[in-house]
Design a protein that fits this description.
Layout lengths: L5 H27 L3 H25 L7 H14 L1 H11 L1 H7 L9 H18 L3 H4 L1 H26 L2 H29 L6 H25 L3 H27 L3 H30 L4
Helix pairs in contact: 1-2, 1-3, 2-6, 3-4, 8-9, 8-10, 8-11, 8-12, 9-10, 10-11, 11-12
């Protein structure tokens, strides 16, 4: 395609770069997969990406090297947050590129087959992306949501009632540990009564460990700093960050609206905290608490 104008050639080179990057990403991710069937599926996808790369290379006449930083980034994400998150995040980032393939049907007849291959990749990935953490994501959501709503409210109320950072931290820690154990027990009994194929002990573990993690991050400011109101502000900021990060993760792996879920969780958590502020102030005033 010697007659390609600069715009078309830049687009071809962009597609070519994506394909060589994804070849290396999928190939390296396949090496991290323990399930043999899944590993072969991901390896097969990587080989398709390499074939697509050579198609675009034929038209561009230029040999490209993989973007090492991009490859490293997605491998890191896949290892830390799981294969599902890493692959879905990468695929979401390439949806725009796939949509642009259709514009090149006339000049590049192989484009149609590339699009069909990409659609086949999505179906193949849907069948293998069944990580344990996703099977138990309902338990994780339960532990995180309950901890954020209950503990932010508890800490807000205790801050106004006691106005002593260390006491608030200790009281919140005791409350959080007791609530985490209670939530784990409830999740165990609930899962045991269901017929969904989930292990009750693992469900209880995921709920409890998530609850404990949230408790830890919300309580730390009260045990480190001196001003209880500053501590509360830091704790609420930590809660907002956790809501943001988890909602982003959940929206990627479950293909749901990030904005809607984030807004909903934020309003609930901060609404309960605000109401607890008022309750704590009322309790302190009418009971005459002075610590």
């Amino acid at each position: 395609m010697a007659t390609m104008n600069k715009t078309v050639k830049d687009q071809v080179l962009s597609f070519q770069q994506n394909e060589i990057d994804e070849y290396h990403i999928y190939r390296d991710l396949s090496l991290c997969e323990k399930n043999e069937k899944n590993r072969q599926t991901i390896k097969s996808i990587s080989e398709d990406e390499l074939r697509h790369y050579h198609i675009w290379e034929k038209y561009s006449g230029i040999e490209l090297k993989p973007n090492k930083l991009k490859v490293w980034w997605y491998l890191l994400i896949g290892r830390i947050f799981g294969l599902t998150f890493g692959i879905k995040m990468m695929e979401n980032g390439e949806k725009g590129a796939q949509a642009n393939y259709a514009k090149l049907f006339k000049d590049f007849p192989e484009t149609e087959n590339i699009i069909k291959d990409e659609a086949g990749h999505e179906k193949a990935l849907i069948n293998i992306l069944r990580e344990e953490k996703l099977l138990y994501i309902g338990s994780i959501v339960l532990g995180m949501n309950d901890a954020l709503v209950e503990l932010t409210g508890t800490l807000a109320g205790l801050t106004f009632a006691l106005q002593n950072g260390k006491l608030v931290g200790i009281a919140g820690l005791i409350t959080g540990i007791a609530a985490a154990l209670s939530m784990s027990a409830s999740e165990y009994l609930s899962t045991r009564a269901e017929e969904g194929g989930k292990n009750p002990l693992r469900s209880a573990f995921y709920t409890g460990i998530t609850y404990f993690a949230v408790v830890f991050f919300l309580i730390v400011p009260f045990l480190v700093y001196g001003n209880p109101f500053v501590d509360l502000g830091i704790s609420i900021l930590a809660a907002i960050i956790m809501i943001f990060l988890f909602t982003f993760y959940f929206s990627v792996v479950k293909d749901v609206s990030f904005k809607k879920r984030f807004s909903e969780m934020l309003v609930i958590s901060l609404g309960v905290a605000t109401l607890s502020f008022v309750i704590g102030l009322i309790v302190r005033f009418f009971l005459g608490i002075n610590v």
